[in-house]
Specification:
The structure is a homodimer of 373-residue chains.
Chain A (H helix, E strand, L loop, with lengths): L7 E7 L5 E7 L2 E5 L1 E3 L12 H6 L5 E3 L1 H6 L3 H6 L3 H5 L5 E3 L3 H6 L2 E5 L4 E4 L6 E4 L1 H11 L3 E3 L11 H21 L6 E6 L5 H13 L5 E3 L8 H12 L8 E3 L5 H8 L5 E3 L2 H7 L2 E4 L2 E4 L19 H5 L2 H9 L4 H27 L2 H14 L1
Parallel strand pairs in A: 4-14, 5-6, 10-11, 11-12, 12-13, 13-14
Antiparallel strand pairs in A: 1-2, 2-3, 7-8, 8-9, 15-16
Chain lengths: 373, 373
């Protein structure tokens, strides 16, 4: 990493298949990879203080450009000197481009080659997002890693629609590069191409020619089957530059994470651990448990007897079941902390397993847990 | 404190009027007095982990017998070895007797000399609370300080009604003493007598003869005027044994706390700081601020520039205003922490002011803030 490079990445260990252990360095800290990135949509990982987030073992968190642009607005975050200071999180931050949210959350969107018109899901107000505006917002947020503004077609889009949207995404990526000039921030490209192997290969090639410091795989985790996702990851696993970090967007369940890592993915994000927490579901070594179920009302065990998090050191399932019934906020905090700690313990196990050459065993364990559901 | 005494109390400094700095020692820790005790109604101070509660500077917290008896029930807490273990709070706990809640929260209550029939506010189920059951529950909860089961008449009760209820409270206090045998737990008496000075004096005398290790002043903070409350505290200030701790139940605002301390009160509890937090109100050196107000949306200042709490070190009013609008749980956690830290900083200032002989100045400051509202 030269002093002009906002992020640097190094593969430390190559494991079986394409799995690798690495380290991603940013100006706000170092991220061991493969890394799971909790989602802090509105400038907070729901229910946790920054210190608690750090204590889950999370090295980096996400911020959502779409949400923060609409509320509180870029001006206010800018006045704080950026998102790190606004939310009191001193570690690395990755911001998405707003593209995915515009296509999934907003109303009345109208896409043309220049950008997207949409209505806010909060108050119905009319907005227009372009590659240039997305980059301007992300530069104002001051994230360590910004993402190119892309068009994300639905999982069932036709080949010609995907091709059209891919072409637009390439043109937008070029405009993002032109618009981007924040020194401390890296800009990652996003590879689209849907479930079409030849399109994925073609789009990867187009973006690799643009020489981004990192590549995201977009357009997956949008409703496709597990086998389709794995098929696309297989195709990309030896097409992406070895020396650059690879980020699979929106994935996923523990088994999905391992399958992605086996195909060379270094970074992932997903709302599953935090969203499940708010629905009273805990990830454990026995699989997912819904603590609202009556059997847990008198269960004196911790959520997971092998978990080192403060929740499992101090609280029983019965206590958490009580908090849920009593509608106490602390239930959300405890379960969110626990689930993120569970995911970060899994990532740590994954990194060790790659080094020790037994990632397959970890996959088999998680497959069994998944098949129980 | 002999090894058989569950709590000991020592007055370290006598200040102006009846104010005193002391120390209350329990088997779970030491409490500097005058002390403010946050309310953990359902086995949690709403929105805070035990560690965060500790970091507010709180040395002791309250648990509510009525709520915990109804949900999750004594059996479950018993199986955890008591409330400390159930809620993961290693510090001292005081439990109320359930009396006040039965009279204020439940439906269809019917009082006789033996006890109270009432319906649960949760599910309408029928229950009967007696002095013996209240003590049994509190012993099962394993609090450091238990309270006698008392009858709490409304603020506008007639002298004869108050007298009748006082007589019953004395009889119940006697039954509580008979029923109480937990070695690690102190049982405090509760002085009733409404707003009638002669009744207060008479009831104090009756309870002092029973030789409790501490005395609570009940039946205040139930809607009476500030001057009525001060009048009763004035009457009691030289009637209660100097060497025993005095606990004013349910008080209060910062100004009320100081006025009580000036009349010899050592301990207080109140839901104001935590309840106000959930209504977006922050206590500050400028008075109470409702952070929902639009002026705070772009206010880069901390809640209180003189506060040493982690919230004021890391978060701006604008960030908290954003969290409130975005309906993020963290808003409650931050404001609850902050308000409790504010109250504990006030208690620390009070203890210092008593030692330095300038408590009156502190009172004048808080009177001015109160009069701004």
């Amino acid at each position: 990493m030269t002093s002009n490079t906002p992020v640097s990445f190094e593969v430390l260990t190559e494991g079986a298949d394409h799995a690798r252990v690495g380290v991603l360095k940013t100006q706000h800290g170092v991220i061991p990879t493969p890394a799971f990135m909790p989602v802090g949509t509105q400038g907070t990982v729901k229910g946790l203080t920054p210190e608690q987030l750090r204590n889950t073992g999370s090295a980096i968190c996400l911020g959502n450009t779409y949400h923060l642009y609409l509320r509180p607005g870029t001006d206010i975050i800018d006045q704080h000197g950026g998102l790190h200071s606004f939310m009191g999180w001193p570690g690395p931050i990755l911001t998405d481009s707003g593209g995915f949210q515009v296509f999934s959350l907003s109303n009345l969107r109208k896409v043309d080659d220049d950008g997207v018109d949409f209505r806010s899901h909060i108050d119905g107000s009319l907005h227009r997002l372009t590659p240039e505006l997305s980059i301007a917002i992300q530069q104002s947020l001051g994230s360590d890693i910004a993402m190119c503004f892309d068009e994300c077609p639905p999982a069932d889009a036709s080949q010609s629609d995907v091709q059209k949207s891919m072409k637009r995404t390439t043109a937008w990526a070029d405009r993002c590069i032109q618009a981007h000039n924040a020194k401390g921030q890296a800009l990652f490209g996003i590879i689209q191409g849907g479930l079409f192997e030849d399109l994925r290969i073609q789009h990867a090639k187009e973006l690799i020619e643009m020489d981004f410091p990192g590549y995201a795989i977009g357009g997956l985790s949008v409703g496709e089957s597990q086998s389709d996702r794995v098929r696309i990851l297989d195709v990309l696993s030896d097409k992406l530059p070895f020396e650059k970090p690879r980020y699979l967007m929106g994935v996923g369940r523990p088994i999905d994470i391992i399958e992605a890592v086996e195909r060379g993915v270094d970074m992932m994000d997903c709302v599953l651990p935090t969203r499940n927490a708010r629905m009273s579901t805990a990830y454990t070594g026995e699989g997912r448990l819904n603590i609202r179920n009556s059997q847990f009302r008198s269960d004196l065990q911790p959520l997971d007897k092998n978990c080192d998090g403060f929740c499992c050191q101090h609280f029983s399932r019965a206590y958490i079941a009580h908090l849920i019934r009593a509608k106490e906020l602390l239930a959300h905090t405890i379960l969110t902390f626990h689930n993120l700690r569970h995911f970060q313990r899994l990532m740590s196990e994954i990194r060790t397993a790659i080094r020790d050459g037994n990632l397959a065993q970890l996959r088999i364990r998680e497959e069994k847990l998944q098949n129980k559901e």
